[in-house]
Each structure stands twice: as C-alpha cells, then as structure tokens.
Amino acid sequence: MSDPRFVPLDFQRRPEPEMIARARAFDAEMQRRRSVRHFQDTPVPREVLELALRTAGSAPSGAHQQPWTFVVVTDPALKRRIREAAEAEERENYEHRMSDAWLEVLHPLGTNAEKPFLETAPALIAVFLQTVHVEAGRKVKHYYTQESVGIAVGFLLMALHHAGLASLTHTPSPMGFLEQILERPANERAFVLLPVGYPAEGCRVPDLVRKPLEEIAVWR
C-alpha cells in the first residue's frame, strides 16, 4: 500500500459581504428550482449536459470511490422502451402496491401512472449506483454508496438548474428495468431517472410551500 499523496488546497477566502451576497444570490436562484413534468421536445446542448455531469462527478464520496455511472439517453426508441417499462411498474404501484396513506400524500402533486415526460423530454439521465469495482483483477467493495450517489444527484440537479434546464427526480419502483434496457453490468443498480430539458410553454407546477428556515435548522 503506497503512502497517501496530498496537494495544496485551491481555496479562495472571500470578504464577508461578498460571501453573504453570493450565498443570497445562490439561494434566490435555487428557490426558483422546481420539479417539472411537462417538457418541450427541443434538444438541449450536449456540452451543457456534459458540464453538469462533470459537476456531479465532483461530489464527495465515501473513500473517494465515486460509485456512480450516469447514462444519458436521447434515442427516441430507448426512451419509448423506458416509458413503457416505467408505466407498467407505476400502474402496479398505483393500483396495488401503494397504501391509501401514500396515495393521499401524492394527491396534491397530481401524479398518476402515465409518464409522457419520459418520451417528451429530450434527454433522460439514468443514474446508477456501483456496488463494487474491479481493481487489479479483484472486486473492491464500495462504501457509503447511497449517501455518495445521493449527494452527486443533488450536485447534478443544481448544475442543470443553474445552466437553465428543468429536471425531475423520477423513481419508479422497482427500477430493475433500467439495468436491463440500458444493458448495465451486474455491479450497477438503478438509483434515479432524471428527465431533462426545457419546460413546456405554459408549464404549471403544484402550488407548494417550502418549510421556512426555522423549521429545518437548529442552532445550539
């Protein structure tokens, strides 16, 4: 085992007024972020998606194992297959698997088993969690995979919004169909599916209120 290698930290300390202004501007931008279920079919620049994925790949991960794979789907036939498989699972969910309490919680969002956005959105980003990787011919277990991939998805959502794109975190359960359709290796598990694109003209979203700071933060 070789000795750890370290490099100087690239960090810029900013004056307090600038820190507050930057934090305030970023908060205002992120407060405008909403999950979108109605998209235009207009293609989005590939470079924007690549840069957003680079940002996602900069997320911290357990032992820096980076246990994620991002599969970008733009092929209409593949999107159609994904929609059909997702809707099949969602019909089972809405008709048999979900409890009345779960359906009641979902009701204000106006969702159902129909997922046309999986075809309309110009890009789908399927995020996969890697349980292990192969190194020098042996399998190496990954640690803190759920936490690591969840943080990376958060980075990705922020990057997409900052660039001017809308997205949705779609989690049809179970999601094994994504592993099959996208021909992923045995060490990968589907984590979330993100439709990405421009909102449809006249797009409307649920009238939701986010919890205020005093309800989500505690100072001790």
Task: Considering the chains and any ligands shown, give keywords for the structure.
220 residues; single chain; globular; four-stranded antiparallel β-sheet; 8 helices; two-stranded antiparallel sheet
Specify the CATH homologous superfamily: NADH Oxidase
| Secondary structure category | alpha+beta
Largest sheet: 4 strands, antiparallel
Distance between the termini: 42 Å
CATH hierarchy class name = Alpha Beta
The mean pLDDT is: 96
Number of helices: 8
Total domain count: 1
β-strand amount: 15-25%
The CATH architecture would be 3-Layer(aba) Sandwich
Low confidence ranges: none
CATH topology: NADH Oxidase
Radius of gyration: 20 Å
Helix content class: 40-55%
Number of strands: 6
Inertia-based shape: globular
Structure in a nutshell:
With 220 residues, the protein is of the alpha+beta class.
Tell me what the structure shows.
The longest helix is centred in the middle third of the chain and has 22 residues, at 76-97. The chain has one domain: 3-Layer(aba) Sandwich (NADH Oxidase). It has a four-stranded antiparallel β-sheet with strand order 1-2-6-5. Strands 3-4 form a two-stranded antiparallel sheet. Helix 2 runs antiparallel to helix 6. 40% of the residues lie in helices and 15% in strands. It contains eight helices and six strands. The chain is α+β, with helices and mostly antiparallel strands. A hairpin with a 2-residue loop joins strand 3 and strand 4.
